[in-house]
Amino acid sequence: MTNVAVLASGRGSNLQAILEAQRRGRLGPARVRVVVSDHEDARALTIAREHGTEAVFLDPEGQDREAYGQALVELLEERGIEHVVLAGFMRVLAPNVIRAFDGKLLNIHPSLLPAFPGLHAQRRALEAGVRFTGATTHFVTEEVDAGPIILQSVVPVRPDDTEDTLAQRILRTEHEILPESLRLLAEGRLSVEGETVTIKGEVDVPTVPVLVPEVTP
Ligand code: GRF
């Protein structure tokens, strides 16, 4: 078993997908031990409690980024956390957190990175007139929404799409590639060289088209 923390600021639908995958035995050895939020009223905290998972509000008020990061690292280390998933965590992590969990921190972003990093990725994809966008899971590095890419799902943009309809279509694919990326990480099937992630064995994402950077037997 490997102990996992999920960090989420809001709605928590990706958290829900991870917990659901865990319930169905699709997370490999990964077990979500704690959910941490920087918002006291985040729905993600309610979802965690409903699943019997510890839910912690870590108040960022009055703390600079380093101090908040230090408090977060202590909280995670006290619980023996090995892997950390950012699932809609709307705060840039301090370098001390990234160092403490180097190679063990995942993020999900609603675009085909490196296109449209940062906020409003779906709106910016519409404005740019792209035919396809999607979602990306990647290792977290100090640069925001960068870092070696694990999985990408590809989502078509329809002529009548609004920001909301496009976001929903992307979100459904996020719910598959994020739990699967966590499973691959927890099973020790990811290796990183430079910017390239090599995946050992099969990737199991039944209903979304996924671009896999490289798969070895
Ligand atoms: C998702 O679109 C994710 O890609 C982005 O923030 C959103 C979080 O949604 N990083 P939810 O809280 O998981 O529903």
Describe the fold and architecture.
With 217 residues, the protein is an alpha/beta fold. The chain has 6 helices and 11 strands. An 8-stranded mixed β-sheet has the order 3-2-1-4-5-6-7-10. A 3-stranded mixed β-sheet has the order 8-9-11, with no helix packed on it. α2 (43-50) links the parallel β2 (30-37) and β3. The two termini are 24 Å apart. Bound molecules: 5-O-phosphono-beta-D-ribofuranosylamine. The site of 5-O-phosphono-beta-D-ribofuranosylamine has 13 residues, from α1, β5 and α6.
Total number of strands: 11
| Radius of gyration, CA atoms, in whole angstroms | 16 Å
Strands in their spatial order, largest beta sheet = 3-2-1-4-5-6-7-10
**Average of per-residue pLDDT values:** 95
Instruction: Point out poorly predicted stretches.
Output: none
What general outline do the C-alpha atoms trace?
Answer: globular
Helix content: 25-40%
Structural class: alpha/beta
N-to-C SSE string, H for helix and E for strand: EHEHEHEHEHEEHEEEE
Which molecules are bound in this entry?
5-O-phosphono-beta-D-ribofuranosylamine
Q: First CA to last CA: what distance?
A: 24 Å
Instruction: Tell me the strand percentage band.
Output: 25-35%
